[in-house]
Amino acid sequence: MHPSDPAVALTALDAIVHVAGSAGARDIPIADFFSGSAGRHDAETNLAPGEIVVAVSLPGSARGGVQHYEKAMQRGAFDFALVSLAATRREDGEVRLVLGGVALRPWRVTDSIEEDVASGGLSDDDIETLAARALYDAVPLPKNGFKVDMAGALLRRGIATIVAR
Which residues of the chain carry a pLDDT beneath 50? Predict the structure, then answer.
């Protein structure tokens, strides 16, 4: 499971990863940066051999709006999130919901749920339904089923936060 706090937040903000190597420089949208492939165990990223990250930038759309980040951790054990959520509502109304600690890469909630959150006017029941829809087809690893409930709680709080402000 991908435990990186910055990766989850940067995915919600649609960051661009700038890399350089012997073949030159290139920009990778963060959505394409993490491999997240169950069949690829040699790397967590899609960097080519010899490439390094030289910078990370945020698009102008990341400015303003409302951002929320929260993580659930095992008390007193370590700093890594068991589950985390980055939720953003941009000034143009677009919403991003990204979970961490639940997949091999930061996991973005489906567009249809983000669009429903962006439509606004959500009741507590609507928020509950959207969080449940986001996790409807979750297939946790053995002994990780508790993460589905944690993710649901984080989604409910995150959605409520970004629609309330």
Answer: none
How far CA 26 is from CA of 12, 43, 104, in Å, comes to 21, 18, 23
pTM: 0.90
Which residue range forms the structural domain that includes residue 42?
14-60
Question: What is the C-alpha separation between 158 and 148, in angstroms, rounded?
Answer: 15
Number of structural domains (the chain) is 2
**Torsion angle defined by CA atoms of residues 14, 61, 91 and 35, in that order, rounded to the nearest 10 degrees:** 0
Q: How far is residue 89's CA from residue 67's CA, in Å, rounded to a whole number?
A: 7
C-alpha–C-alpha distance, residues 40 and 77, integer Å = 29
pLDDT for 40: 53
Alpha-carbon distances, residue 36 vs 42, 59, 115, 125, 145 (angstroms): 11, 23, 24, 33, 20
Does one domain contain both 158 and 143? yes
Please give the pLDDT value at position 38.
56
- Residue 143 DSSP code: T
